[in-house]
Amino acid sequence: MTSIPATKSAISALKIEQRVERDVKAGIPEVDRRNHTESEESMRSYVAREIIGRVHENRQSELDAEVQSRSEVEIRQLHQQIRNTESLIEKKLGGPVAGLVSSLKRNARDLSAVRMDLEIFKHRNELTREAVYRESRILHYSVIFFIVILETLLNAFFLSKGSELGLVGGFFQSFIISLVNLGFAAFIAFALRNCLHIDYLRKAGAALLLIAVIGAAATFVFGVGHYREALEQDPFTASQMAIASLLAEPLGIRDFNSWIMVIVSGIALILLAAKFFLVDDRYPGYTAITRRVRGLEDAWSEGYEQAVESINAAAEELQQELAEKEKAIRAQFIQFKASIERSDEIHRHYREDIVKAQGLLDELIRYYQSYSARMMNRRAAYFGELLRFELDKLPQLNTAGLEQHRRDLSEFEALLEALDQAYAAATETINARCESAQASLTALVDKLEIEHGLRRAG
Q: How far apart are CA 180 and CA 170, in angstroms?
């Protein structure tokens, strides 16, 4: 963008040719004239007001924008924050470390209490061995689900022949039978496990329960066989016929497919009962309290590891913030210095604009004289002689804050020289504080383990 317009544009805007014709008719300029004419003053006023005024406005807005950008730097604040890293560390680590200490103490108390409960349980029940059980219950439930579905599919085939709804009806009847078997298996496993209890009364009660449940389960399984046999005779009265046949002759099943159903249901019942019994320790309640102890032991170990990781993560975050501040200081210093240089360049361009404007005024004067000479056959006497801008009357650029920013630049240069040392000291402080926090946690863990009997001293 050209700041000073071309001579032709200025001639057209001032209508110099019309001015010359008007001045010639009025006998202006006179040969012996000593004062500036209205045309001369109009030219100077036009250049000073319309051209230099606009240039001044543009340059001043550029200068103000640079001042505003320099006023937004935070070099002092960022440098002070780097020097005061200790307070930032306390803010970042103080609260989290206190929370971690509290959590570790609480976990140690809980683990100690549950361990004591386990020892009391083992002493009361005269147990000297460790609990034997399956760690994962996903596989346990998967096998149970597979047994139930397999039994359902096999029995559905046999029940579908006599069902009113065919295969769909047989499937739902078979599924209900499998669920009942599942319930019997759970009760059998529960009663069998309690038969091994040290308390004789509880053992006797469990034995009676086991006999009753096994009897009920056997009755149900043989009842399923009688029901399957009755379905082929009369589906509408199969239930009544099955109950009557079961009560009269429990083993009186004559149909081969019905016997297969009895065998399938019996095998499924035995497998489900064995699965329920073997998934936990054979002594009742031993698995539950052991799982609690091992769960809290894992939580205790993970708590310490997470505490150390939390401290390391906080230290990395602090170092990242520190590095970003150091980069911000250097970037803002470069921008600040470049902004001052751009302000100086704006001043220089403005002075060049004034020189160009004076040259434009001289061109306008020469054109006036040339056009006047063609009309009057003589050069316009004294026109435009020594017509120059009075510099003190031209608008000056406002440089408020520039000198202060020059002094700030010198201060920032000194801060930048000391930045490497301050950054290294802050990084060392973060590392030292992190190592100290980790050492404190390790000492706390050792102390808690000894105080709560989680391991032996020495």
A: 15
